[in-house]
Write a structure and sequence with these properties.
With 297 residues, the protein is an alpha/beta fold. The protein has helices at 30-41, 50-63, 81-91, 117-125, 175-184, 220-227, and strands at residues 5-11, 68-71, 100-103, 144-148, 152-156, 194-198, 233-237, 244-246, 255-257, 268-275, 280-287, 292-296. The protein has one domain (5-296): Purple Acid Phosphatase, chain A, domain 2. The strands form two sheets. A six-stranded mixed sheet has the order 3-2-1-10-11-12. A six-stranded mixed sheet has the order 4-5-6-7-9-8, with no helix packed on it. Helix 3 packs parallel to helix 4 (117-125). The longest helix has 14 residues, at 50-63. The protein is globular, with a radius of gyration of 18 Å. The chain starts with a strand and ends with a strand. The structure holds fe (ii) ion (FE2) (2 copies).
């Protein structure tokens, strides 16, 4: 890819839920049961039109000459195999080569502490988990690096972990991943590139404050301390269902939360354009009832 300007689509938290009647009861663990009850109580109605909206987002992506697609997790409601399969089917048109698709799991994608929950995510998304600098991989597939053209790279860190209790939706980036990330920043193959660092959890809210302990990224400060060495780049995430940009004193690069692309009343996402000099322009994407549209941010 030798383009002067690279155009990136960033969306997140589509929360595909399969109908409860399709769930095999014996697969239910305590958290899953509570999660399902919450869905029954009404949360699911906010994601009723996920299939229509994803079809519209695919059309939007094709019309907007996108070079790289980034998804920061929470594909599902309960991390069920049927949900992951459906979510993968909905985003698959964006995963067709030469489109570059980079992703991380969200906490809902590995909802309960099952031995195979990470495996299940990897199984669905293995075709887009290839790593251009695999020597930095420090567990599972992460950190995962994708070199894009001559002037950009995406670095994906996994902050999602199973939460055994229903009232917790907090995460952390394992220390081994952070150490590897820190070392990677000195690699000459990344020198001069604009770095998009992606993870699921929000290191900061729209206010610039850390998220609550039971909902946030535990080691956000350690993560931001490493990111403070980056002079050209941005930090991308989801988890908080609000679309926002925030600039904070801890780092010199902006933070972008994609929010949820499909949550009724809050639909949002971003398009970023990065030129060869590392100049960034962003446009917010909003839902207009039948299609997505950009607005100046
Ligand atoms: Fe979410
Ligand atoms: Fe989340």
């Amino acid at each position: 890819m030798q383009k002067e300007t690279i155009r990136i689509l960033h969306f997140s938290d589509i929360h595909v839920g399969t109908l409860l009647r399709h769930i095999h009861w014996k697969k239910w663990f305590s958290k899953r049961a509570v999660g399902a009850i919450n869905l029954l109580r009404g949360r699911s109605k906010y994601f009723d039109e996920v299939e229509e909206k994803m079809a519209a987002l695919v059309a939007f992506e094709k019309e907007n000459d996108i070079d790289v697609v980034i998804n920061t997790g929470d594909y599902t409601a309960l991390g069920l195999e049927s949900e992951l399969e459906l979510a993968k089917a909905l985003v698959a048109p964006m995963m067709i080569p030469p489109q570059r698709y980079v992703t991380v799991p969200g906490n809902h994608d590995i909802y309960v502490h099952e031995a195979n929950s990470h495996y299940r995510f990897s199984e669905q998304f293995c075709s887009v988990l290839q790593n251009d600098l695999p020597e930095y991989c420090a567990g599972g597939h992460f950190p995962l690096v994708r070199l894009v053209g001559e002037h950009l790279a995406v670095i994906a860190l996994n902050s999602a972990k199973p939460n055994p209790w229903p009232w917790r939706s907090d995460g952390h980036i394992p220390t081994v991943q952070l150490r590897s990330f820190e070392k990677m920043l000195e690699d000459p193959r990344l020198e001069g590139r604009f770095l998009c660092v992606i993870t699921h959890y929000a290191p900061r809210l729209a206010s610039g404050e850390p998220d609550k302990r039971l909902h946030g990224l535990h080691n956000a400060d350690d993560f931001l301390r490493i990111c403070s060495r980056i002079d050209k780049g941005m930090i991308l995430f989801g988890h908080v269902h609000r679309t926002y940009r925030v600039d904070i004193p801890e780092v010199s690069i902006p933070l972008f939360c994609a929010g949820s692309a499909t949550m009724e009343g809050r639909e949002g996402a971003w398009i970023y354009e990065v030129d060869k000099e590392g100049n960034l322009k962003e446009r917010r994407i909003v839902w207009k009832g039948a299609h997505y549209q950009t607005v100046s941010s």
